[in-house]
User: Fold this.
Amino acid sequence: MRSKDTSGHSTVQTLVESEFRTLLKKYYGEIKSKKINLTDGTSVVVDGVDNNNNIFVEIYSHQGNLGPGQRKKILTDLFKLMIIKYDKNVATNKYIYVFANNKIESYLTRNSWASHAVKIFGIILKNVTAGLSDETKNRLLLTQSHQATHRKNKIIKT
Assistant:
């Protein structure tokens, strides 16, 4: 049996998500990670929901270039927001994808099916690059570099 690869998750990324929530507080109030129950009995966990369950947020802290894995993660996060919107069918709710990377913004606004889906589902894109400190960005880049090295070493050992 294969063990789950947790090299993509880190304490630094968790702390940065908290920093993102602080940046968002002035726009949307307090948001906290929450498990959302869907009408079919399944559930999905999102990175942020406001106290009134009207604002749903996914946060992605990746810095730098986007490889296939990062693009898949972005689409997975967007799909979570889309399924909640479709399942809840509440037009007044806000669905927000938050990031601090201009390359993500470019990826989601260029002419592609992903940007079309963002528009159709009314996902709000929120780039908080200007609000994130250089120190935080550098910590993320260092963490991502460590994670990439860990994954490469794991592949070599296999």
